[in-house]
Amino acid sequence: MKLNPFKSISFGNVSSAYDQLLVIIVACLFCIGFIMVASSSITESIDLTGDPFHFISRHAIYVVLSIFMIGVVVSIPSEQWYNHQNLILFLSFLMLFLVLIVGTEINGSHRWIGFGPLTLQPSEFAKLSVVLFIASYLQRRQIEVIDTLRGFIKPMAVLFLFVLLLMLQPDLGSTVVIIVIMMGILFISGARMISFVFLTITLLASVVILIITSPYRMARVVGFLDPWADPFGKSYQLTQSLMAFGRGGLFGQGLGNSVLKLEYLPEAHTDFIMAILAEEMGFIGVVIVISLEFFLVYKAFNIGKKALSNSLIFQGYVSIGIAIWFAFQTAVNIGAASGIAPTKGLTLPLLSYGGSSLLSISIAIGLLLRIDFETRKILSPVRFIKGKAEKGDKNDSSVDNLVNEKFNEL
User: According to the model, what pLDDT value does residue 275 have?
Assistant: First the structure.
């Protein structure tokens, strides 16, 4: 018996058609992010534009667009993403190429394309296109990936192109995220361990070479290892962040009472928003945010597990890829702000200021809700049939026949 991964079945229990807890978690993160961006960006907004609400007004626009995007994506069957993943992959490559030609240079990097008053960062959407690509590849060739080295190497060509285009910007943070996403999905799919050992050694050697050959990256690594050796030089941003964590204590200084956001901590509303949150809301606030991010990742993994157990291969690996993406990016962002990891310029999902990040993550959340919806549509008829049968003759052997008949209709 083989299930059609894209077959739809309607059912009447609307309240169970989506994961309500996931929606609540996402809403909480949106609200906390909006409040913290408003609190942490006023001083820099005044300094750069003279308008204290410059960043928060733009952030509000992106939040509204993100919520709208979630609604749009939820209405699109996952089959459409599977059928058009090649087009999505091509557009992602095209945008990464165009940003090198017509992109806006900020802090020595070409990562943004301007569209009037708004800017787009193609590398954020590249993460999603990688998830869709590797999930669709496993839908078609999972047995080949498990049994042969050739099946494992094929997607590495796509990974190499992404890495090449991202490093030309340069954007090491997004490069590492994309590598982790692809490797994580392939590992969970059951690929051969010898393939991972060889590739891991190659990637680690490449990262070491990139760090050694770049004075900027080398300074970041050295500053991370001993930030107080040069607190007003290469480690300035990290030491200011650590002081923000220290000032926060258990309950924080109170919302809006951060001192480090007063132009002491650069990028306070983007990469280091967790430091301002720690200063104003304390250890309790940090624990709440980390818990919300953890449950978001857990929900994504759980949705993927349920999809895979019901033969929804593409949907399952998309969910797992999104979970890996969110988990790794959250860990790196918080690790960089707290001095556990080198700074990588990665946003904190749904909290940091950044329109491209918000939009790409919102599309991913819409996909999670859609996949969960489709999985429930498969499970619901079976539960309904079993419930009806249990109310009748418990010894009636027709229960299995009813269940099998419904599966055959799929």
Answer: 93
